[in-house]
Design a protein that fits this description.
The protein is mainly alpha-helical and about 160 residues long. The protein has one domain (about 10-145). Helix content is about 70%, strand content about 0%. It has helices spanning about 10-40, 50-60, 65-85, 90-105, 110, 115, 125-145. The radius of gyration is 19 Å and the shape is elongated. This is DoxX family protein. It comes from Jiangella ureilytica. Keywords: Membrane, Transmembrane, Transmembrane helix.
Length: about 160
């Protein structure tokens, strides 16, 4: 039988630290990523995702929002999400906006599947969209935290 870990056991210390700070670090790091991607879109031509954003928003809005307006709208949304995650202010609102944004962010996989996987292999754009699967999982974890769930250490 394995003895119970003591408070000084290095593994137990690390586990307690991770339980106490891991979700906050996850939230802040995701916020920094959204801020970086969002702010970049305020500068025309600076974001490598700009053409994909334009095409996706144009398609999703049936042509009502297109071109630079689509990119600016995306920049505002991503920057707002990033600020809510980094600061913790309006976090629940930011997570709801993020959940909706993720649907749009992943939609190119459905809307433009043939372009994303020509010859069966993913393009760089497809790989860019694939990262959003991880973002979706993070939203679930942060959403649980925002609704009151707690991560507890067993040590």
């Amino acid at each position: 039988m394995t003895p119970a870990p003591t408070r000084r056991d290095p593994v137990a210390v690390v586990a307690r630290w991770l339980a106490a700070h891991g979700l906050q670090l996850l939230q802040i790091s995701l916020g920094v990523v959204f801020l970086a991607f969002g702010v970049l879109k305020f500068f025309p031509g600076a974001s490598p995702a700009e053409p994909l954003v334009m095409r996706t928003i144009d398609t999703l809005t049936l042509g009502l929002v297109s071109g630079q307006a689509a990119v600016t709208m995306t920049a505002v949304i991503e920057t707002f999400i990033g600020l809510t995650l980094v600061t913790g202010k309006f976090l629940r609102t930011g997570l709801v906006v993020l959940a909706g944004a993720l649907a749009g962010m992943m939609s190119p996989m459905v809307l433009f599947f043939g372009d994303m996987f020509p010859g069966g292999t993913p393009t760089l754009e497809a790989q860019y969209v694939f990262k959003d699967i991880v973002f979706g999982a993070i939203v679930l974890v942060l959403g649980a935290k925002a609704l009151g769930a707690r991560m507890e250490s067993r040590h």
